[in-house]
Design brief:
The protein is α/β, with parallel strands linked by helices. It is built from five helices and ten strands; from the N terminus they run E-E-E-H-E-H-E-E-E-E-H-E-H-E-H. The strands form two sheets. Strands 1, 4, 5, 6, 9 and 10 form a six-stranded parallel sheet that branches. Strands 3-2-7-8 form a four-stranded mixed sheet.
Length: 172
Amino acid sequence: MIYTLTLNPSLDYIVELEQVTLGGLNRTKKETKLPGGKGINVSQVLKRLDITNKALGFIGGFTGDYLENYLKSLEINTDFVRVDGDTRINVKVKSDSETEINASGPNLTKENFEALKQKIHELTSEDILVLAGSIPSTMPTNTYEQLAEICNEKSIKFVVDAEGDLLKKVIP
C-alpha cells in the first residue's frame, strides 16, 4: 500500500471577494473549506487514480476531525496520530490577487513523534511511504532522516517531496 505523510496538515479556508478593503468590512462571495498539506494532496490524487492509499500525520481538535471526516468521505483511509491542540487553519483570500495566511499548527511532542515512528515501523517492504511537505518547527530538524532510516532498515520504499536543505539532507 502507499502511505502519505503530512506532518503539519491544515484546513484551508478559501474566501473569494470582489475586492479587499483593508481596515473595512469585507463580504465574501464564495467560501470553501478543504484539507491541505502536500501528503494529503498526494492521497487525493492517488484516490482519483483509483489507487488505494492511507494518509498519515498529526491531527487535533475540531479542525482535525473535519479534515479526517472529509478524507473519509472521499474514501481515503487515514491513520493519524491525535495530538493536543487544533490542526492549523490556513486562510486564503482571493480577490484581484491572492493573499495567504498560514498558521503554525499545534505543538508536537516527543511522544507524538514516537507514536508516528511506531506507525512507520509497522509498514513492510511491500509498502511505499511518501514524505511530503515541510517539518513543523516543534519537531527535530532531522525528522525526515529519522523516518528514512526506519524505511531503509525495513526495506520500505519511500519518496520525498521537499525543498532545499530538507531534501538535500535526506538524499543520502
